[in-house]
Amino acid sequence: MLLNYLLKLSIFGDFSNINLNNTGQNDSYVKLVNEFVKKKLLIGVQQEVMFEINPANSAPPVQTIIRRPTAFSSNGDLSINFTGNRIDIQWIMKHKDSNITDKDFIGKAQSYLQDILDAYKISFNRIAINMEDILVEFSEDAAENIFKKMANPSLEFYKHNKIKEWNTRFTCVSTIEEISKDINIITTVKRAKRNFSWEKNVAVDCISVLYDINSAVPKNNKLDKLKITDSEKEILINKYMDYYQKIHKEIFDKN
To answer: What is the pLDDT averaged over residues 173-200?
Structure first.
């Protein structure tokens, strides 16, 4: 049985102004809350503790508490979290009967993201998706099929002894020519025992595949002047999903 366990869309940039301590942002916050409530999300507040240290004297660090909005679904599977430099829109399988397709999640995540961009008039310089597929209740033949594609060591010791757990990771860089941007495509595959929230006291033998696809940091490391436009955002997300679906199909294809 294959589970869509984790799906996440993230953007990166300077979001320090999304701060409920800043009364000048009240209108933006109200606008965002109204849109989220229409979509049946619950609204909350999370606190981020910052420490400022003055190297010129020996005074203790000054603590500042920053309040930022957060939103989540009634069953807790979906959450939207803000920090000073990233925003995460995430769905995680917390209940055994929870289910969402990658297409449905991306559609909803893009809608939530647009609400945030419209309310706060922010820009961002990088964007990423993270997906995790988990295979449970599988046959040894199915496990061996994936293992041979992703690992299959040539060391004699491991060739002649049964491998119960394994972990492998691949990273490559691809260029999207139409917008001249590099993206990182990272796939991590492992077999190990794992606990799930719906079976907390049971260690489940599973094979997990984690996909991390993100826009690369420029070679000059200068992100402050970099801005991803609306059209680039659409192209990047579509490309990310193409890569995810292609890799997913090849890993879990029985051939």
So the answer is: 92
Instruction: Please say if the pLDDT value at position 54 is more than 80.
Output: no
Task: Convert the pLDDT of each residue in 100-130 to its tens digit.
Answer: 999 999 999 999 999 999 999 999 999 999 9
Task: Name, in order, each residue with C-beta under 8 angstroms of 38's C-beta and a sequence gap of 6 or more.
Answer: none
Integer angstrom CA distances of residue 244 from 162, 190, 240, 250:
30, 17, 6, 10
CA distance 218 to 181: 9
Backbone angles phi, psi at 37, to 5 degrees: -65, -40
The domains of the chain are located at 2-252
∠184-190-193 over CA atoms, to 5°?
140
pLDDT over 80 at 220, yes or no:
no
**What whole-number distance in Å separates Cα of residue 212 and Cα of residue 235?**
17
Strand order in the sheet with 166-176: 42-52, 62-72, 78-82, 86-92, 2-12, 126-136, 199-215, 181-196, 166-176
CA atoms within 13 A on the CB side of 89: 20
Q: Can you say how many angstroms the Cα of residue 116 is from the centroid of all Cα atoms in its chain? A: 17
